[in-house]
From TrEMBL:
PANTHER family: MONOACYLGLYCEROL_DIACYLGLYCEROL O-ACYLTRANSFERASE, TRANSMEMBRANE PROTEIN 68
Organism: Stylosanthes scabra
Family: Belongs to the diacylglycerol acyltransferase family.
Residues covered by the Serine aminopeptidase S33 domain: 197-389
UniProt superkingdom: Eukaryota
InterPro entries: AB_hydrolase_fold, DAGAT, Hydrolase_4
Protein name, per record: Serine aminopeptidase S33 domain-containing protein
TM annotation in the entry: none
A Pfam family: DAGAT
Keywords, ordered alphabetically: Acyltransferase, Transferase
Amino acid sequence: MASITSFGVSPFSAMRPRFRVQAQNLDRPIIPTNAVLPSESDSVVTEINGASSSSSSSGSLVLETKHLKNDSFILDKNRENEKLIIEEKRRGNDDVVLEPLWDDGYGTQTVEDYFAAAKEICNDDGGPPRWFCPVECGSPLKNSPTLLFLPGLDGTGFGLTLHHKALGKAFEVRCLHIPVLDRTPFEGLVKLVEEAVKVEYALAPKKPIYLVGDSFGGCLALAVAARNPTVDLVLILVNPATSFGRSQLQPFLPILEALPNELHVALPFVLSFVMGEPMKMASVSIENNLPPAKKLELLSSNLTALLPCLPELANIVPKDTLIWKLKLLKTAAAYANSRLHAVKAEVLVLASGKDNLLPSKDEAQRLARSIQNCRVRNFKDSGHTLLLEDCIGLLTIIRGTCMYRSSRRNDLVRDYIPLSMTEFKSAMDVVGLLRAVTGSVMFSTLENGKIVQGLAGVPVEGPVIYVGYHMLFGLEVVSLSEEFITQKGIVLRGISHPELFEGRRENASSEFSIFDWMKIFGAVPVSGSYLFKLLKNKSHILLYPGGQREALHYKGEEYKVIWPDHPEFVRMAARFGATIVPFGTVGEDDIADILFDFNDLAKIPYFLEYVRELQRGSVKFRDEISGEVASRNIAPPVILPKLPGRFYYLFGKPISTKGMKDMLEDREAANKLYLQIKSEVEHNMGYLLKKRDEDPYRSFIDRKIYQTLYPRSESDQTPTFKL
């Protein structure tokens, strides 16, 4: 499960931080190694690819080294000041580029794997606390930041078992293991983690260091952040135990001390149902799209397999260890709470709604008020062991909240990681009803002007800008993104309103929402710099010049193209020779009717004051010269849903801007092309509005009857009008 090949180094300080890394040889497979700084042993033993050497801890450090093509870890000894200098060439695979729908491994590891790994590491579990790198994490992408996992009361360090493979692509993952018999005081653990942070900071001062603290580990992360305000830290706190003083564990301590040893074997069964949600633990490897009967069968089987693992909790946290750790937890909570004002790091709190050990939901709200830069995501159906339950992956949460970065500045182009297959399936589950009722059908135009069903006419090579009409509430984006990913393997980088990234609408009760999923799918805030970066990166860009003014339009403005009066993107596209694809979408009038628009709502007393209050402090990225599209008289309309019709998309003939760099100076030529693109969008919508009347399956009911009579695979579509 978790075999460890290690090498030790002589002591040089009172603390004993350990680092688990991977030594890589291009001619050989990656071999896990363990660098220990320092070891309690009197001798130094080095093992790299099977070669070993030893020396006295009091003498000079001698390492038998091989000149590898790609050494990942180098040790040297400074004889003058007797300090050990660690120089680590950052791991990172320059050749690996993650493609959309990559395998993040979520669901391949379960709670059973956690117990198996914990059992193995707890056998003969002596020595001080130490770091290790899970083999499942593999080699990360180039320039990945470091992630240090700080465990909860179990201390095994395997709390990220379900997330190892995914996190290993984006981070240098290192986990802290606190042995069962270890009695290091809280201040000692703080210094141990602090030393690890300082080493990482010395190796890569321009990169952030992530501290993921689970329960007790949350206190540890906050303490380290408070003591190191100048280090670029990002804290992910999972049900942090800073609320220990208000928890059910507080009165449990005297009862536990009086509990006879014979009864302690029954304690794990009690704790297992208090700590987590057994149903969600057993659901990790079960896909949501399975038939109910099959899901129930697998759930029953997983629960049955989980029961034999529960007695292992008695070995992970025996009675004496549990008593010690509860006392340690009390100290940790007091220490962290007294220093919250000193925390300058970015903080994300993940709180479970069904945490039976700690009042995590209330604590998240308190921390959001007490810490300067703190955000919250709630998971209402999860228990205390959030990271071991069927939930959204940790990497997904970090990226969806825009907290993933490889340098001091957040760059959503440079640091973007394409969505994985698990993320894609989860997102489609969220919007599954909309996809089912709209029955979207897409058409594209070939180079010769012929219209065909599908996306055959869409360019594959970037950079490409898809410019179109924004339907009511932007509902067309869902099917658009899905089709491009599944049919073309292309992630559309949507240019979105900056408000989605400001976090001003968030609060301590926020859950992982559709707006977070938009960031997973590649959305970036509208700005000239991001458009420049995307074009330079040869991305496929989704652009709506009409923006929220089109998406929240008034009554009678269905399919009215409301664009700026001057070209905003044409000259930038010409600079990079990008291809522009105008497209039209129709179908919003088959979904809902607008009952009250902004003009109607403005007649309600205090409504305008409410809207202006919401807009106060918001980003204004267009001025009055942009025309009607710059109007701030917008608000979500009140709608009346209808029996759904169908969404139709038509992508026009691609327009290449190669060789048009003269537009950078010729504003008249740029404006002429801009008007041509706008005309193409209007023409495409006119074509679809006319042809959809010929679609025998435009109605949702007709489509469902057809699908019942002629069941097909998910990739097959219900027929539409003839071209």
